[in-house]
Amino acid sequence: MPIENIPEIYFQNIKTDQDIFVYDFKMSSDVVKSKVNLSMNMFSFLQVGKKQVHFAGTSVAVNKAQSLLLKKGNWLWTELLDTEAVYYCKLFFFSEKKLTDFLSKYTNNVKPYKEEVPYFVIENDDYIAAFINSLSSNTFTDHSYSDALLVLKFEEIMLYLLNKYGSTFEDYLHSLISKEISLFKNVVESNVNSNLKLEEIAFLCNMSLSTFKRHFTSEYKEPPGKWLQDKRLHKAKELLEGGDLKASDIYLDIGYNNLSNFSVAFKKKFGISPTDLSN
């Protein structure tokens, strides 16, 4: 799966050195787990459809009643059409320089801020809906005062969200310029019980698959496929022993594409079939 460099792929009609800009994004087919290298922080104002994103060890799903602010970095995201067979969102990008300028102007950056999650979920309201409707890539490319207008729009939404969410949002904004990098083990171990493939976990670690495998074996003293399978099968055994779930309920979440493969691996590991535990 190729990596999409965003917002670079949208640079056809804008200046590449622009610190703030808007892009109207539309599509007519579902895209599942696309690999995205996001080089700028980005608001995703979803208007039609659904979106799920993965970053390192975390994930979140939103619909048109919510918006997302995402930090720059490597993401996996899934975009799904609405019943109207269309997906539409407005993307609002801003550079770290503009964010730093804003924080220096409006906040008191006197203490260290520790990053907790790479995204911020925004609950849309009437004000935010009106703000989204005021955004259009056409508005801010053909106007002689486009750059100045964009700075005002950027400050407007930032100030409104600071007013709406208070210190929670302020702390998140400061975390966006933090140089703290997620540790390799944190990414790996937070995805033990996900259904992500090795290639996808490697991507979230900012590594090629071959580099990821070498680094993993050095850290854990065994190949990643074997290690993850062992952890996931133990998790499956724990879930089945709870008595509320069947093998057919959990095999996808444990990282298997079909029930048969899961059953074979489970029996090889524990000497009994998963149905023996759930009966």
Written overview of the protein:
- One of its GO terms (molecular function) is DNA-binding transcription factor activity.
- Residues 182-279 form the HTH araC/xylS-type domain.
- It holds the Pfam family HTH_18.
- It comes from Psychroflexus torquis (strain ATCC 700755 / CIP 106069 / ACAM 623).
- With 279 residues, the chain is an alpha+beta fold.
- The protein has two domains: 3-175, Jelly Rolls, CATH 2.60.120.810; 184-278, Orthogonal Bundle (Arc Repressor Mutant, subunit A), CATH 1.10.10.60.
- 41% of the residues lie in helices and 24% in strands.
- Helix 3 crosses helix 4.
- The longest helix has 20 residues, at 146-165.
- It is elongated.
- 29% of the residues are buried.
Secondary structure elements and pairings:
Blueprint: E1 3-6, E2 20-27, E3 31-38, E4 41-48, E5 50-55, E6 58-63, E7 66-70, E8 73-80, E9 87-94, H1 96-106, E10 119-123, H2 126-134, H3 146-165, H4 167-175, H5 184-190, H6 198-204, H7 209-220, H8 224-241, H9 247-250, H10 259-270, H11 274-278
Parallel strand pairs: 1-3
Antiparallel strand pairs: 2-9, 3-8, 4-7, 4-9, 5-6, 5-8, 7-10
Helix pairs in contact: 3-4, 6-7
